[in-house]
Design goal:
Layout lengths: L14 H9 L13 H7 L8 H17 L2 H9 L5 H6 L2 H13 L9 H15 L1 E10 L9 E4 L2 E4 L5 E8 L1 E8 L6 E7 L4 E8 L8 E2 L6 E2 L7 E6 L10 E7 L5 E5 L3 E3 L2 E9 L13 E5 L2 E4 L4 H6 L4 H5 L4 H5 L3
Parallel strand pairs: 1-7, 10-14
Antiparallel strand pairs: 1-4, 2-3, 2-5, 5-6, 8-9, 11-12, 11-15, 12-14, 13-14, 15-16
Length: 336
C-alpha cells in the first residue's frame, strides 16, 4: 500500500494512453488520485477519447490497485461491481472471494483468493480510505533543497531526498501535526489540514541556525530530541505571588465575568510533558484594550506591558518559515 505503480499496471492503459497522461504530468497510477475528476477532464480536454467514463474507470482501478497490488485483481474487482474501496470493505470476505471467482469465470483472472486474503484487502482498504499522503519540498532560505531532513508525524517519518522532496503516507485526513528537523537549521512544528484528496502538497522553508539544547539520556548516552510529536501540554494553575519575578506572561483568555487568564510565554519541558503556568486575575489587572497575546513582565508583583509581541518572544524566527508560507499568527499560536 502507498507504493508507486506504473500507469501501465492499470488494465486498459496502453502505451499511447500512458503517453497522453504523462504529457499532462501524470506519471504514476497514484497521480490519478491526486486530482478531482473534473480537473483531470479539463487537463485532458485535447484528448476527447479520454472521456469522463474512461477516466473514472482508470481512477477507480488505481484506487483498488493500492490495496490488491495487481492490475489484474483491480480489473477483476471492478468487473464484478466492486468499484471503490468503500464497497470493498463493506462486503463479507466470502462475497469478495466470489467476485474474484466470477472474474476467473470470465477469463479476466487465473488466480483465486481465499477469505484470509480478502480480509487483508479489506483491512488495507479501510486504512487507505481514511488516510492520505503528505508530499512536500524542504528548502533553505536561499531556495536550495535540504537533503536528509526528517519529517515526523504519528503516521511515521520521512527523510528528504537529495532534491529536498519527501513522501509521507498513511496520514489521517483532517488535522495532522508534523515536526521538521534538519542539521544546521531551526526546527518547527506545524498543524496541517488535510483534505480528502489522496495527496496534499506542501513546501517548507527552514531558517539557518539551531534552537535545540542537547539533552543526554544517561542510560543510553544518546541525545534526546527536544520536541516530540507525542508531547502533552499541561496547564498548571498558580497564584500571582507564586510566579517568579521577571516572568513573561501573555493575555490568553477573557472570562465572561470579566476576569482574565494569563499564561507563561515560555514553557517547561520534562520528558514528553510541556508545562504552562497560568494565573487568573481580575480584569482590571490589564487594560480593556489589550488583545490576546499581549505580553507583560512581572516586576515587583505588578504587570508591566512589553512592546514586543508574543511572536517576538515565543516564536521569533523559529516560525518565520510558516509566516512566509502564509500561515496566520492565530494558526501558529495553536502549534503546541
Amino acid at each position: 500500500m502507498y507504493a508507486k505503480h506504473s500507469l501501465r499496471e492499470i488494465e486498459g492503459i496502453g502505451l499511447i494512453t500512458a503517453d497522453k497522461l504523462q504529457a499532462i504530468g501524470l506519471f504514476w497510477a497514484e497521480d490519478l488520485l491526486s486530482l478531482p475528476l473534473r480537473s483531470l477532464k479539463i487537463r485532458l480536454r485535447n484528448f476527447p477519447e479520454l472521456n469522463r467514463r474512461v477516466l473514472l474507470k482508470f481512477c477507480r482501478q488505481a484506487e483498488l490497485l493500492q490495496v490488491v497490488d495487481s492490475g489484474q485483481f483491480a480489473e477483476g474487482l471492478y468487473s464484478a461491481g466492486i468499484r471503490n474501496l468503500a464497497k470493498l470493505y463493506s462486503l463479507k470476505p466470502q462475497t469478495v472471494v466470489n467476485a474474484i471467482d466470477e472474474s476467473i469465470a470470465k477469463g479476466l483472472l487465473k488466480t483465486p483468493i481465499d477469505e484470509a486474503t480478502a480480509t487483508e484487502w479489506q483491512k488495507l482498504a479501510i486504512q487507505y480510505d481514511y488516510t492520505g499522503i503528505v508530499q512536500g519540498l524542504l528548502l533553505s532560505e536561499d531556495g536550495q533543497p535540504i537533503k536528509q531532513g526528517t519529517i515526523y508525524c504519528k503516521a511515521g517519518r520521512a527523510i528528504t531526498a537529495n532534491d529536498g522532496t519527501f513522501w509521507l503516507p498513511g496520514v489521517r485526513y483532517g488535522a495532522a501535526r508534523i515536526l521538521i528537523e534538519a542539521v544546521g537549521f531551526k526546527q518547527f512544528t506545524a498543524n496541517l489540514k488535510l483534505s480528502n484528496l489522496k495527496k496534499s502538497r506542501y513546501r517548507f522553508t527552514l531558517i539557518p541556525g539551531t534552537d535545540v539544547v542537547e539533552e543526554i539520556d544517561e542510560n543510553s548516552g544518546q541525545s534526546i530530541r527536544r520536541f516530540d510529536i507525542n508531547d502533552r501540554i499541561v496547564q498548571e494553575r498558580k497564584e500571582l505571588w507564586e510566579i517568579p519575578e521577571a516572568t513573561l506572561l501573555h493575555l490568553s483568555h477573557r472570562y465572561v465575568d470579566g476576569d482574565v487568564k494569563l499564561s507563561t510565554v515560555h514553557r517547561i519541558k520534562k520528558g514528553n510533558v510541556i508545562t504552562i503556568s497560568t494565573v487568573r486575575l481580575l480584569g482590571e489587572a490589564v487594560s480593556v484594550d489589550d488583545e490576546n497575546t499581549t505580553v507583560y513582565q512581572l516586576q515587583g508583583g505588578t504587570l508591566v506591558k512589553r512592546s514586543k509581541s508574543l511572536s517576538d518572544y515565543r516564536l521569533g524566527v523559529r516560525y518565520a518559515g510558516l509566516l512566509d508560507a502564509g500561515y496566520k499568527l492565530d494558526d501558529i499560536l495553536e502549534i503546541q
